[in-house]
Amino acid sequence: MAYHKGKGKKGGHRGNSNQGGDEIIRVPLPKEGQLFGIIEQALGSGWMDVRCSDGKVRRCRIPGKLKRRMWMRVGDVVIVQPWPVQSDERGDIVYRYTRTQVDWLLRKGKISQDFLSGGELLF
Predict the structure, then answer these.
(1) What domains can you pick out in the chain, each with its CATH number?
(2) Which CDD domains does the record associate with it (predicted)?
(3) Model pTM greater than 0.85?
(4) For the chain, where are the E strands, in sequence order?
């Protein structure tokens, strides 16, 4: 009689564990033409006022796939993709960072505490 000698669960852990204590966090950073931003005001219908790292406040839209997947609140750090037309006034929210990802960005110097508290972004 043959018995199945699998892991017991689908998608079980298959080694490759992090034994060295190295920090492995995959945090997406803004690509070419994208900016860091902080949500300042929720306007409804998937629109937010976002203060971007270049000092401008843009009215940004939350695309449907993000709107259904995650909640956005005032004070969240996001990645903004300015529109090709009206790039100083409008944009799309591409990604929202979690609290641990924001802490990582602060530690690595990608954003500053001044930016989070209402000042400008310092690199």
Answers:
(1) 35-117 (2.40.50.140)
(2) S1_IF1A
(3) no
(4) 35-44, 47-52, 57-61, 77-82, 90-96
